[in-house]
Amino acid sequence: MITAILTARGNNTLKDKNLIKIFGKPLMFYPCNEAKKVKSIKNFFVSSEDKKILKQGNAYGYKTILRPKKFALPNSNHHDVLLHAIDFLNKKKLNPEILVILLGNAPIIKKKWIEDSIKILKRNKKISSVVPVVQDNDHHPLRSKKIKNSFLKGFVKTKKKVSTNRQDLENCYFLCHNFWVIKTQEILKNKGEKPWSFLGPKSYPYIIDNHIDIHRIEDIQIARHILKKIG
């Protein structure tokens, strides 16, 4: 059985960001709506401490998981949120083998992406999760810096020659925060690569072209542009 859980909290620097409207729809509408189109997903839940978010989720057919406020703080760990949700489902006699985790502030998502990811995960028993990634050599680790003793130093130490041209570097990928398809047991084991160890040790990349999750008001305009582009 496959269950979708939308995670969203109300305690944000950008007030009520999950409910900010783009093209007349709250941000959380986009992940909720696309996941609802996936026939293999049988149950839908929204995890939040915020009554407005829970009410909006209910309107989209997502049942409530009332999240403790200690798991809705700026420094709260997503793994704790997922463990709380799994415990809630177990008490309801629901034991999904696969969880589709949706994030309420990430409107760039497609039904096909979710369906493809589920198929990949179900086809290969060795895979622990399937997650969208974007290639971004502009922000390659070998180009990053830290400030040490008032001067810039390479964030990653290397003796190898590093080209200033991003095209010459090994392709670099960043995890997207729009959805993750994970085997439930892997979340419980929590043995994957940090910081997203709950994805398990064999996390498979699903490469997409565009993504943004909303943290600043400026991100709204970027999201509008991408949504127009991907249709």
What this model shows, in words?
The protein has two domains: 2-135 and 173-230, Spore Coat Polysaccharide Biosynthesis Protein SpsA, Chain A, CATH 3.90.550; 137-171, no CATH class. The longest helix has 14 residues, at 78-91. The protein has 231 residues and is an alpha/beta fold. The two termini are 30 Å apart. 27% of the residues lie in helices and 24% in strands.
Keywords:
Spore Coat Polysaccharide Biosynthesis Protein SpsA, Chain A, 231 residues, single chain, 6 helices, alpha/beta, 24% strand
What's the CATH superfamily of the largest domain, by name?
Answer: Spore Coat Polysaccharide Biosynthesis Protein SpsA, Chain A
Instruction: Tell me which CATH architecture of the largest domain applies here.
Output: Alpha-Beta Complex
What are the low-pLDDT stretches, counting only 5+ consecutive residues below 50?
none
C-alpha Rg (nearest Å): 19 Å
* DSSP strand content: 15-25%
The tally of domains stands at: 2
Nearest-integer average pLDDT: 95
Count of DSSP strands: 12
User: Approximately how much helix is present in the residues?
Assistant: 25-40%
- Overall morphology: globular
CATH top level of the largest domain is: Alpha Beta
How many strands, which pairing sense, and closed or not: the largest β-sheet?
Answer: 8 strands, mixed
CATH-derived topology of the largest domain: Spore Coat Polysaccharide Biosynthesis Protein SpsA, Chain A
